[in-house]
From TrEMBL, chain A:
This is 2-oxoisovalerate dehydrogenase subunit beta, mitochondrial. It comes from Hermetia illucens. It is found in: Mitochondrion matrix. Together with BCKDHA forms the heterotetrameric E1 subunit of the mitochondrial branched-chain alpha-ketoacid dehydrogenase (BCKD) complex. The BCKD complex catalyzes the multi-step oxidative decarboxylation of alpha-ketoacids derived from the branched-chain amino-acids valine, leucine and isoleucine producing CO2 and acyl-CoA which is subsequently utilized to produce energy. The E1 subunit catalyzes the first step with the decarboxylation of the alpha-ketoacid forming an enzyme-product intermediate. GO terms for biological process: branched-chain amino acid catabolic process; response to nutrient. Keywords: Mitochondrion, Oxidoreductase, Transit peptide. GO terms for cellular component: mitochondrial matrix. Heterotetramer of 2 alpha/BCKDHA and 2 beta chains/BCKDHB that forms the branched-chain alpha-keto acid decarboxylase (E1) component of the BCKD complex. The branched-chain alpha-ketoacid dehydrogenase is a large complex composed of three major building blocks E1, E2 and E3. It is organized around E2, a 24-meric cubic core composed of DBT, to which are associated 6 to 12 copies of E1, and approximately 6 copies of the dehydrogenase E3, a DLD dimer. GO terms for molecular function: branched-chain 2-oxo acid dehydrogenase activity. InterPro entries: THDP-binding, Transketo_C/PFOR_II, Transketolase-like_Pyr-bd, Transketolase_C. It is an enzyme of class 1 (oxidoreductase). Its main location: mitochondrion. Signal peptide: none annotated. Its EC number is 1.2.4.4.
Automatic annotation (TrEMBL), chain B:
Transmembrane segments: none annotated. Residues 95-392 form the Dehydrogenase E1 component domain. Keywords: Metal-binding, Mitochondrion, Oxidoreductase, Potassium, Thiamine pyrophosphate, Transit peptide. It comes from Hermetia illucens (Black soldier fly). GO terms for cellular component: mitochondrial matrix. This is 2-oxoisovalerate dehydrogenase subunit alpha. InterPro entries: Alpha-ketoacid_DH_E1_comp, DH_E1, THDP-binding. Its EC number is 1.2.4.4.
Amino acid sequence: MANIIPTMIRKFANPKVISSLPAATVARRTHFTYVADKEAPVDGPTTKMNMFQAINNGLDLALEVDQSALLFGEDVAFGGVFRCSINLQKKYGADRVFNTPLCEQGIAGFAIGVANAGATAIAEIQFADYIMPAFDQIVNEAAKMRYRSGNLFDCGSLTIRAPCGAVGHGALYHSQSPEAYFAHTPGLKIVIPRGPNKAKGLLLACIKEKDPCLIFEPKTLYRAAVEEVPVAPYECQIGKADILRSGADVTLVGWGTQVHVLLETADMAKKELGVNAEVIDLVSILPWDKETICNSVKKTGRVIIAHEAPKTSGFGAELAATIQEACFLHLEAPVQRVTGWDTPFPHVYEPFYLPDKYRCLDAIKKVIKY
Amino acid sequence: MALIRNSLKIVRDITLRSSIRYSSTNFDPDPQGENLGTTRFPGANAPFVGTPSLLKPNQVHPIPIYRVMDRSGDIQDPSQDPNLSRDIVEKMFRDMVLLNTMDKILYESQRQGRISFYMTNFGEEASHIGSAAALDPNDLVYGQYREAGVLVWRGYTISDFIDQCYGNDEDQGRGKQMPVHYGSRKLNFITISSPLATQMPQAVGAAYAFKRQPNNHRIVICYFGEGAASEGDAHAAFNFAATLDCPVILFCRNNGFAISTPSKEQYKGDGIAGRGPAYGIATIRVDGTDTFAVYNGTKLAREYALKNNKPVILEAMAYRVGHHSTSDDSTAYRSSQEVEVWNSVEHPISKLKNYMLKKGWWSEEEETTYVKSIRKQILSQISLSEKKPKPDWREMFHDVYHDMPQHLKEQLAEMEEHVAKYKQHYPLQNFKA
């Protein structure tokens, strides 16, 4: 599949080209401000890392402890188009960190086979938008292998990483958030980190997990998200949501980059409306933390779910339906979903497409007034 | 590369005979091109030529079909006789007859509504047994669904087969898949799944993992039909196997049909073997009705794959004598006269039988006694398997994940409560309590 963004970056990296352009043309508008984790997930020495460095560090630690672990995908050998695998081939050899032919169904199928043989497979799909050719291997094969064989065989040592989400200018095929497609598949585990700490901990958890895991990494955070990350290996629990800010008036649920939009929205709501919002990072899409979400909603009586992916059958629909089922008597207002529109992800219209802080704030106004 | 060069040489020979103009310009390095220096394109290593010409598919000779034994069971070239012991050949023959007998009975039992589905192996027994015999029992097998003979050879029992088809409590697959979706950890046979060709890149991945193990002595074999070879996953598997140097035999059963689609509507090239050189893969085509040709071909492929850490494409030519499955009536798309030829003189079992008769290793009486005893075993197993309860219905929720997550625990509890309330509406008597 085409990988347009790094080529664009390389082109514009030429200072002559850049200096010949008016500044406004290259200025990047981001729809969020990164909020670093308040505390490290585990004790011990930390280092400042951005998200690609934290992932690189996680991969490094995984390859170091597990001699069977393999890292592969398109352009992984030279460090990856997002630098996540940088220096790893040099360190662990070309038989453990290597390029595959350009074929997603092959990458996923190959990875399942590696895992069948008991080795650890860490596969990369260059953009989550290009995971679709591997859909059959992931949904019909990886997810069902343990079940259909009566536990004779499994591919539990398989992890697939894929950069996802909006990036400012990624348009239709460098922006998608396909988590809901996979959330409909029993047998998979799906996680989405909100920053470096979470990315490293979730990655190491996925690699160790005895079920096939998908980890969707919001690509806009690779460089933008910087925080203190523990140097030692650690794991973040799959299936556990994080309450990032507590509040009593409304529950805001999101994941990935959207968490940072919601944190900013919560600041605005406090300042402009005097509303105390509880902000929850769902972290794990499958299985998801029903208990944490429902406890929060029972407390606040109001809930807004926000995600970049389109609304219809987005994962917000699953949350909304379950909240309605489990918290019916506690709800003071209808469950709100602030999401991408039911259109393909557009290029120049991205600012109008995303569920930004103003749309989220407006939803808070609606549920408070209801 | 060697194969490509050979085929180019063949083309050159043809063109030499047919046209002087072609021979002077077509495939020899062009003097003008050489003056321009050596080629520097990273994508191919080839000489320049000065005239454009299309390499047409018919300019490449078809890959020949390796055969050891003719239809009367005579070895054509004594140097090719694998000289297998009487015990081995007798096991080959008995296993083929067992598979054939079991197929006939289970096919009928589906017709009587006793099992929900079945697929026979008629006409392809030699591909299964010949290849399985040439492998090490530790070699890992990925199959499509018409390779039950490989399991027979490795020791999967009549009860293993029939319990799976009934999905009863003795089924190793726990009654979760349709009949003929066998699997065995003990016998290194990865559980079959219905989506075609998905097993192919998986087999390549497993072979890669084997290769990395110290003193590796295992290869992977992956079976698939010529129809499945049209799937994208087949392309992925061929290309990954070649570029990543994987010790895997990609074994194609080319039986002429994918359900109703004849192979001439499946591809236009030289079968599946013809694709091997294009991927840079060592390739062999064998007579899939000749047990010894399949055996020798697989043995050669295994040695090559293990020694060089490289893949082999093996195409076994055969004919699907039976219907595609119990849901198919093949008379709707082919003549019964055509089928009859492959069911008699060209049938793998009759060929091996002729060989054994000539050796004095087998007789009609022995066969009658053997088939009779096998039939008896299969029929009594059917009545046993039929009576065995299905697993506890709660197993429906097991093995989705390694550990049951909370939401599945809740759904299990919900169904338990429901079943307790409405038990008269569910076939609980058929399931283990």
